Amino acid sequence: MPSQSAIILKKPEKKDDKFVAKTIEPIKILFTDVKLKSIRRLVDSKGYTITLYIPETINNEGICYMNRLDDTIMKEIVRSSLKWFNKEITQDELIEMYHKSFCSQTKTLSVIFTNTKYPKLVYNNKDVETVDKVIAILRDNNHFKKCIINVEIEYHGIYFYADNTKNKWVVSSIDITDISNDNNNEWINKDDIVDKLSDNIASVNTKMNSRIIEMQRYINELEENRVNINKLFLELKGSSCNNIQEPLNKINQLIGCQESKINKYNLL
Question: Residue 268's closest CA among 232, 222, 228, 214?
Fold first, then answer.
């Protein structure tokens, strides 16, 4: 991993509606047992954009490397923006426009998969000629769900648009192993299951915490109304004034509100 003071990017060059900053030296990362989330053909039909689910536990080193690379690149942009664009980009401005390579929420990563970058393609220990053939194999009856997929990706720089940026990662090699006919279930990856279970638990906890906050707010409102009703009732009892209509109206209004809240809770 380059140090945070190292220069990673070449000076950006204008290309159509964007600036493109290529890397000075190749940067590659290997991810193992990835899952294929989606496949989209590129606009120019020269390849595909594929979205990969990256199991964190078994790929922690690669993910940490990628996150550190993002941090280093952001520091370089802030440091060099005035020289590159005749405009200073602050850290806060960059945070708004910078899209990190790896999405920590979905645990996914989008990469380019194209013949123009001459990737090494292997299926069941045999070379495959083209990216299209690999995609056809994976798409056939959702065959990718029955495969172990290891992929090496290479960083090809960052694209600067008017109000955002995009890091470009390209598949440099892919190794696919068909396990559909394997009667031995030892290939099932425990770490992958743990990652998925962790996602499900996190989702339930988020919903549960939201529900607890909602219920606590409801309890607080009931308690506040109870205190107010009892306070007004005591004031009414101890009052020497015969005109009790106004405090009586307030008490009845609070009682009606309280009953509505209780009935609402019974429906939840």
Answer: 214
Q: Which pLDDT does position 155 carry in this prediction?
A: 96
Query: CA dihedral in degrees (189, 192, 26, 7; nearest 10)?
Result: -140
Residue 209 lies in a domain: yes
**pLDDT value of residue 198:** 76
**Model confidence, pTM:** 0.65
Virtual CA dihedral for 32, 40, 13, 173, nearest 10 degrees? 30
Position 126 in a domain: yes
CB 131 within 8 A of CB 113: yes
> Cβ–Cβ contacts within 10 Å for residue 190, how many?
9
Q: Can you tell me whether residue 158 is helix, strand or coil?
A: strand
How does pLDDT run across 82-92, given as a tens digit for each residue? 999 999 999 99
Task: Tell me how far the alpha carbon of residue 225 is from its chain's centroid.
Answer: 42
- Give domain status of residue 150, yes or no: yes
Helices 245-267 and 190-238 cross at an angle (nearest 10°) of 160
Q: What residue numbers bound the domain in which 41 lies? A: 13-183
